[in-house]
Structures are given as C-alpha cells and as structure tokens.
Amino acid sequence: MAANENERFDQFAAVLATELLERTKKCMELLAPELQPCSKLPFIQTPSFVEFYADLVRVGILPVVLSRRPVRAIVGDVDWKREGREYLLTVLDDRSNGVFTAWDFAWDSLWDERKVSADSGGGANKEKKGFFSSLFGRKSQPKKDQRSTEDGEIVMAGLHSMLTELADRRGFLPLFHDDVRILKGMPRVKPGRLAQAWKEISQYHHQEFYLSEKEQAKPGVTSECLQKWHYNLPDKIGEFLVLKAAVDLEHVNKPFIGKYIRQSARTQEEAEKGMPYLTVYWKTMSNPVVVQQTHTL
Question: Measured between alpha carbons, how far is 248 from 33 in angstroms, rounded to an integer?
Fold first, then answer.
C-alpha cells in the first residue's frame, strides 16, 4: 500500500477498534448489577473481566479482524478522520457486513485448542503465544499454552480453556463452551437498546410493586416485561438482564426467579439448561424472610 493508503488504513483501524470496544464495553456496563450479588456472576457482568476484555480484543481479536480481505475493502476512499464513525455505523447496520463476519471468525479460530506445525510456530504465532501467556498470567508457565503431538505438531491452548482457568482468579463463573456465541454477538447489541430495555423493566417493576393500589399495575407485568426483552435481545443477553434484575430489583427474589425459570420451558431440566447462568445464581439466592405480624390487645 502507498503511504497515504497506509495512513487511511491506520485511521480506519483506529475508528473500528474504538467503536467495537466502546460499544461492547458500554453494553457490559449496562448489564452489570449495581448492588452486591450473593454469589459470583457470569464473566460479562464482572468488572474485572470487562477490564481484561479490552486487552484481549485489542491484541488478540482485532488483528485477525483487520487481516480479513472484506474488512480491508471497507477502507475505500473515506475520510476516516472526519466522517469515519458515521460511515462505519452504516456498515455495521448491515447485518451481513464483513466486520461481524470477521469478528466471528476471529473468536471461532481462537476459541478451541488448535494445531500448528512446529515449522510455522515462529513469527506471528510466537508473538500471539507470548501475548496470551502475558495476558493470562502464564509467564512462569509458558508450556501450559501448548503441547506437542506425536507427529511434531504444536497444540495451542484455546481461549475457552484459558478464560475458564482465569475465572477463579478474576472472580467470575467458569465459561460454558458455547459462550463464544455471547462474545461473538456483543458488537451486534446496541447500548441504546439495552438501556431502553432496562428502563422499561424498571418502570414496570415500579408500577407493579410501589404504586398505590389504585394505580398499581396488574401482578406479573414485571415478569412479562423481562420475558419480552429476554427473547428479543441477542443470545443470552436477555438472560443477563434478568440476572441483573435478580440482584438490583426488590421483590425479584428467589421465588420470583424460580417461577420465571419454570415458566420458560416444559420441564425444569429443560428450563435450567436454557438459562444456565440464571439457574446457577437462583440456586445461591436466599429465600425472603417472612415477617410475622404480632397483634396486641
């Protein structure tokens, strides 16, 4: 690429990185409960993961995204310094855009352990291995990142196993293998939509539990609103919103969440399987204290 093309590409890369990181970070912040939970939360809702996530994306995911030809083709002759973000937003609004496809590819390619030949283990692979070792606190145990097969190939550890190993140290729940779908889906979630969802949930909660009897909404509207957003937001995001409600909203207690889970499927087992993180949290919740009224003569 010519010098001005290189400069334009660097500007594009900066705009893209900023948009993806800010969008996903804002969504994670909106999903994080404000009150103290009674047990560990999923990675997406844990501040220590949010901090870690930015470094992981910046050095582990974005280089893969930017290396993909459809992404590089977006650069065009756009003035990325002046109007780059506005143009990028129109690109991202197209569900089949090259950025999201490349983003998915990056997570998929790094999620599970993968084989590389010993001969190709230099250059970028060495750099990536060194980055992961440093990022995941494995400086003193570099061999944990890899093992060799009988035919001389090197098996590199995947992000799933490395993040699960990190969970205990960072204070979040171990990841399920299909949680890669959550990480792939995060840039597709617009923070404004998430903020709208929580605002609506909070309003219905207030109307159901805090207004006077005349103005009070019918019982169950909070649960109905949670269900609405649960199934209208991308994969698992709605479940995290219900979990946030379980932490932050009074009356969304253990019986409430237990009933919510049971109503979501034909059997308890099926329901729990469909909402694994909410189920884990529900089982750690305490039952509400029943206040007995005493009558004096």
Answer: 6
Domain boundaries, the chain: 3-109, 189-284
Check: CB of residue 213 under 8 Å from CB of residue 252.
no
Q: Taking the C-alpha atoms of 224, 225, 228 and 234 in order, what is their torsion angle to the nearest 10 degrees?
A: -140
Q: Report CA-CA distances (Å) from 140 to 17, 59, 114, 135.
A: 30, 21, 22, 12
Matching residue, tokens 């890669």: 180
Selection from 86, 66, 82, 65 nearest residue 6 by Cα = 66
**Torsion angle in degrees (nearest 10) through CA of 70, 76, 82, 86:** -50
Given this model, what pLDDT does residue 3 score?
A: 56
Instruction: Give the residues across from 117 on adjacent strands.
Output: 153
CA angle 213, 215, 219 (to 5 degrees): 70
Contact (CB, 8 A) for 186 and 194 = no
pLDDT tens digits along 166-183: 999 999 999 999 999 999
Q: Quick one: angle between helices 237-248 and 276-284, nearest 10? A: 20
- Closest to 144 measured CA to CA, from 153, 152, 154: 154
234: region left, alpha or beta (phi > 0 left; psi from -120 to 50 alpha): beta
Q: Cα 190 vs. chain centroid, distance in angstroms?
A: 13
Give pTM, 2 decimals.
0.85
pLDDT at 124 over 60: no
| Distance set, CA 172 to CA 47, 206, 275 (Å) | 9, 30, 17
Taking the mean position of all CA atoms in its chain, how far away is CA 186?
6
Contact call for residues 32 and 45 (beta carbons, < 8 A)? yes
Q: What is the token pair recorded at 9?
A: 């590409």
- Name the token pair of 16: 């893209």
Under a CB-based contact definition with an 8 Å cutoff, are residues 30 and 191 in contact? yes
Q: Which residues contact 25 (CB under 8 A, 6 or more apart)?
A: 50, 53, 54
